Amino acid sequence: MGESEVRASVDDGFERAFGYGIRTERDFCRFVDLMFVYGKRFDAEVPWAAAVLKNEEIEDPSQRRDSIYDLARRRRGSGAR
After folding, report:
1. Residue 46 per-residue DSSP state
2. Does residue 50 contact residue 68 with C-beta atoms inside 8 Å?
3. Which helix or strand (DSSP H or E) is residue 2 part of?
4. Model confidence band, residue 81 (pLDDT cutoffs 50, 70, 90)
5. How many domains does the chain have?
6. How deeply is 46 buried, as exposed, middle or buried, from its count of CB atoms within 10 A (0-12, 13-18, 19+)?
7. H-helix segments, 1-81
8. Residue 81 to residue 79: CA distance in whole angstroms
9. Dihedral sign, Cα of residue 16, residue 22, residue 23, residue 28
10. How far apart are CA 80 and CA 73, in angstroms?
11. 61 lies in which domain range?
């Protein structure tokens, strides 16, 4: 990816993250990290990620971020996508 593609991807990631109530720099960064690991539209195309991000029982976006990031680490450690 060239610089312009990376910038466009990050901008798109910020916009999508904002739609999930993500507002802090740390939360945005984690969302974009996951986007680069699991794909540009991981939030819609990776079922376990979509389930966490759309879970209305998790009201705090930072808690949602922690949940998805922890799940991603466990899945990566087990070799699952």
Report:
1. S
2. no
3. none
4. low
5. 1
6. buried
7. 3-19, 25-38, 42-45, 47-53, 61-78
8. 7
9. negative
10. 10
11. 3-78
